[in-house]
Automatic annotation (TrEMBL):
Name of the protein in its database record: Porin
Keywords: Signal
SUPFAM superfamilies: Porins (SSF56935)
Sections of the chain in a coiled coil: none
Signal peptide: 1-31
Amino acid sequence: MKTSIPARLRPLAQALLPLGLALSALPAAHAGATFKIDENNSISIGGGLRVSYSSVEDGAPSGTSRSNDFTMESARLYMSARIQKVFGVTFNLNGSEDEVKVLDAYAQYEPSPLFNVWMGRMLPPTDRANLDGPYYLSAWDYPGLVSSYPALFAGRDNGVTVWGKPLDGKLTYAFGLFQGHNRKLGLSNEDAKLLFAGRVAYAFLDAEPAPAYYTASTYYGAKDIFTVGLAMLQQSQGVGTAGNKDDYLGYNVDVLFEKNLGPGVLTLEGAAYKYDFKNVDVPAASGNVGGLAPGKAYLAGAAWLFPQAIGPGKFQPFVRYQRSSPDGPNNEVKAYDLGLNYVIAGHNARLSAVYTNTESDLTGTKIDKFLLGAQFQY
């Protein structure tokens, strides 16, 4: 059955196709190269890059003209090693503009799919968006309007996680203890209370092919997916100052459905969040300090992957809606995304064109943004 791209999306398709054709001579992207030392030990290395052009309404330095910005959003170096098969080390770096930081750095004990232990800097088990990271979303931009759990850097924190995938991988559990929020003299966590993070997800159809307890928001039809996840983070004395503190509690439910229907792959995603504490946190600062607000948030998204290849890739239009409703009057912020991905090699080679409109009740403004992005991993 032949399908065609809707007329309203054809200008975006025409913008993406020439770049995709120019890249068609590149070798297929993959997850990196593995060098085998012997039958029990190996080293792997890979990388990732996200670059974009964006134009934002009133975003120029004048405050009255559109901005025109070319951004190196992320350059990543992935490194890992296996030692005697059951032990491992992962060390990943992330660079953006002129700054390079440690992204992940953890030791691994992985004796079985049912039980594993990681210790170091890693992604705490939270919502699907955070476990996707920017490279494995359906949309381009991270949904930071709704997914705002405390983190040290790029969703990470220092701690320990126990995880496993029983029932042939259909059930994924992950529980961890982490350094947590506001761990600073004069702030709420000067007593160094740990943050607990836990997630349980069940796949009612195929088990998700993502590694460990990680996720993606689309698998481009490789599996039939219907997964429901529940996550909770709790920390005593997690928000506020030493003299005005409160316990932190945040939790969410997220759902992913994906099905190859023949004429295309349908992807549906949703999430609901609750951040439950008093409005006492300090303004955001560097590190895992300040900036948290109580309230509710919601996310909904849909995508459709056309089956026919045009040039080296396939087109995938998507829509996404975010709504953040912090406690208090007139604080709601909404964002609408309408975009088109040109999928060359799954999440390893993808181009994106996105229009975003953000509405704020607090400021009474509506701001639109147009973005062209390119993402590659190897």
